[in-house]
Amino acid sequence: MKYIVLHGDGLAGGPRKELGGKSPLEAAATPNMDAVAGHGEMGVAVVSADGPFVTSGMVQTAVLGYDPRKLYPGPAPLEAASLGVTVGEHDVVYRCSMVTLRGAAAGGDAYSDIKKLAAPVTVEGEAERLEREEARDLLEAVNEQLGSETIQFYPGSGSRHLMVWVGGKLRAVCLDPREGAGRPIGDCLPTGDGAEMLRKLMDASLVILRDHPVNDQRREDGRKPIHCLWLWGQGRASRWPSFAERHHVSGTVVATNDVRRGIGICAGLGAIEPSDVTAADGSDFLSRGQAALRELGKKDFVYVHAEMPVGLARGDAKAAMKIVEEFDKQIVGTLINGLATMGPFRPVKDGVRDATRLSAKLLTQG
Prior knowledge:
The chain is an alpha/beta fold. It is built from 13 helices and eleven strands.
């Protein structure tokens, strides 16, 4: 038996006035998903998790058969697994985002007069239009001055990187910088056990980065500077039971997102290289479908994660419908057509749906 799970992250969306109260998923033409739903079984997946929010990573953890309340360690340790960063049993991994802040002055000076992480500074959020090499140069400068036997920095992708605190503290309360956008920085900095160390590191990164040549060039280009590192999303590495041993199948995760790849790696599954899927923002659906078919020729189980572009949630309704239709054609359609050449297959019970249609499908070929 061979199995494929398709995870359309953010596919369902909410009702849109322009679509007569329908969601883009309801309004779009999706013949392939309709065929799967029409010939299979539909159900609602309920994910149990601690705290008020269920993240997409928790959903993937649960779909793979693991209890997120016991095993989901937070995003940073999963990203570490994806990037091959070694983490000790008592170490704590933090997401290390590069952020832009805003001071009290009007105009461009609002970004130049920030001397410390204190009032009247506000948080703008993760850095915009940050090139990979720029990010690595900035992180290298921080690592040269702040890296030690207990504090280690590792490059990731875009504006988001990792910090490992060897033997560090876990229970500080840290805020996602996107949630802090527009808020006074005093309301957003870490609090609780371990917060003093985190604040010192963030303050020190401000001193290192504010006059860095990369920021000089960004200002010349009309881009906002990167002011400091923002520490959040922490957790310790967790040991997961092997998916292959539990289910007697070999498998691969097809994803570019480091959290999604890390979940697969922690479960003992393989994970394709992000370069094998050409668009990291989730927009190149065809390459994901093709990669899944290639992996299915070698493995028993494939988990395909496709993150919907931001436009699906906030953009033009017709553009959102187009994204759904491309997902249906390029991922679901590619897989259905490919499976037809491998032998009989059927949809089976499992999946996540909105009021009328599945937003995730499980296909079984056998």
